[in-house]
């Protein structure tokens, strides 16, 4: 007989930082053996983002399919059945999961993962439906506590996460700087600004190589933008190993993102001795990208990015020292083997943190009430959205 408590992770099935975060925690903790573990990949029919294809080392992996056009009461009911009726922990950043657990009185303790301000705002709306909030940046952990002190005193935690480490700094003695972008190819990540940086660098007679890693809606636009350029390559790796093979050849990570929590991409670059140049955004970026590790530029300041690239181009001793600093910081603070266990140490205290009384209930629209048949709601919403 298996007397282990259950732990259930739920998150969107798409490729990106959220899936990578969960993958790293699940696949690297030695303490996961204390639970019966399940991964529920949530896939909305309307979500066309690329799927996350890595293999999880959980006891069970399930894809949960649904549509936004359905009656969400019945969606939540189906999802709660997957969450299970045994005591334990639900680990999620997903409001649908939390609503499902509370709507049907699931006995598990809810650990809400806070990645950025989107999730802070969600946490405020969810109120005491959340038992514990965990952020991987000190800023967002403080934001949760500050937003609802009476609910999250001693229930809001900052736990850094991590990535796989490499043993030694890869050889990076390049005549021409190798610059990399790693992230989703959309406007929020600032990927369309890279070509402008390339143009300015060319005017300064600074030759660089660009490696653009990622998938997303702007892929075809990027290819057209860079048409005729021989110093750029595009890659769509499906696994972490493929990403690391590309990163070991890179010198600096150019990341003009507009909105972030704690980017997994920065940690992966740290581990491969790649210096980050990014926007100065509150959150995990300020925890990680400090003096001697990388550079933070004013939001929207393309010339600021170019200046830092030029500095590294001209001062290879500085570049080499910063690359070594990145590797040492990654090993000291962002080793996934250690940090994943830190997460599970908290998950194992689920009994301590389960709220005894929950005063709020999930808000549902009129069409999401249980007395409306699912088939009827789908027809109504399909007609309304024509």
Question: Can you summarize this structure?
Answer:
The protein has helices spanning 17-28, 72-83, 95-103, 117-126, 138-147, 149-152, 194-203, 219-225, 240-247, 264-271, 284-288, 302-314, 316-333, 336-347, 350-353, 374-384, and strands at 5-12, 35-44, 60-66, 88-92, 109-114, 132-135, 156-158, 177-182, 208-213, 232-235, 252-255, 275-279, 294-297. It is an alpha/beta fold.
Structure, described:
This protein is α/β, with parallel strands linked by helices and 386 residues long. The chain has 2 domains: 5-162 and 337-384, Rossmann fold (3-Layer(aba) Sandwich); 177-334, Rossmann fold (3-Layer(aba) Sandwich), CATH 3.40.50.2000. The protein has 16 helices and 13 strands. It has helices at 17-28, 72-83, 95-103, 117-126, 138-147, 149-152, 194-203, 219-225, 240-247, 264-271, 284-288, 302-314, 316-333, 336-347, 350-353, 374-384; strands at residues 5-12, 35-44, 60-66, 88-92, 109-114, 132-135, 156-158, 177-182, 208-213, 232-235, 252-255, 275-279, 294-297. The chain has a 7-stranded parallel beta sheet with strand order 3-2-1-4-5-6-7, with helices on both faces. Helix 3 links the parallel strand 4 (88-92) and strand 5. The longest helix has 18 residues, at 316-333. It is globular. The termini are far apart. The mean pLDDT is 94.
């Amino acid at each position: 007989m298996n007397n282990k408590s259950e732990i259930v992770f739920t998150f969107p099935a798409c490729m990106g930082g959220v899936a990578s975060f969960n993958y790293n925690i699940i696949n690297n903790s030695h303490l996961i053996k204390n639970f019966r573990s399940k991964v529920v990949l949530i896939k909305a029919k309307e979500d066309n983002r690329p799927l996350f294809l890595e293999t999880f080392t959980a006891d069970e992996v399930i894809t949960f399919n649904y549509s936004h056009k359905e009656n969400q009461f019945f969606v939540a009911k189906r999802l709660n059945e997957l969450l299970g009726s045994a005591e334990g922990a639900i680990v999620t950043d997903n409001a649908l999961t939390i609503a499902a657990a509370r709507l049907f009185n699931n006995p598990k303790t809810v650990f809400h993962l806070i990645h950025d301000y989107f999730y802070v705002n969600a946490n405020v709306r969810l109120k005491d439906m959340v038992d514990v909030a965990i952020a991987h940046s000190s800023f967002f952990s403080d934001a949760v506590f500050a937003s609802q002190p009476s609910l999250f005193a001693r229930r809001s935690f900052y736990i850094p996460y991590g990535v796989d480490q490499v043993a030694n700094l890869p050889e990076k003695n390049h005549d021409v700087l190798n610059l990399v972008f790693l992230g989703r190819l959309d406007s929020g990540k600032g990927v369309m600004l890279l070509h402008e940086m390339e143009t300015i660098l060319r005017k300064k007679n600074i030759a660089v190589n660009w490696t653009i890693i990622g998938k997303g809606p702007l892929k075809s636009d990027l290819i057209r933008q860079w048409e005729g350029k021989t110093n750029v390559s595009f890659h769509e790796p499906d696994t972490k190993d493929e990403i690391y093979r590309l990163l070991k050849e890179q010198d600096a990570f150019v990341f003009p993102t507009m909105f972030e929590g704690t980017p997994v991409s920065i940690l992966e670059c740290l581990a491969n001795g790649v210096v980050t140049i990014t926007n100065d955004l509150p959150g995990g970026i300020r925890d990680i990208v400090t003096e001697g590790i990388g550079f933070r530029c004013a939001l929207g300041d393309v010339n600021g990015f170019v200046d830092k690239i030029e500095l590294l181009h001209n001062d290879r001793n500085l570049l080499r020292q910063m690359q070594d600093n990145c590797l040492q910081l990654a090993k000291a603070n962002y080793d996934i083997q250690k940090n994943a266990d830190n997460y599970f140490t908290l998950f194992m205290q689920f009994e301590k943190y389960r709220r005894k009384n929950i005063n709020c209930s999930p808000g549902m629209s009129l069409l999401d009430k249980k007395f409306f048949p699912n088939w009827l709601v789908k027809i109504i919403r399909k007609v309304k959205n024509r």
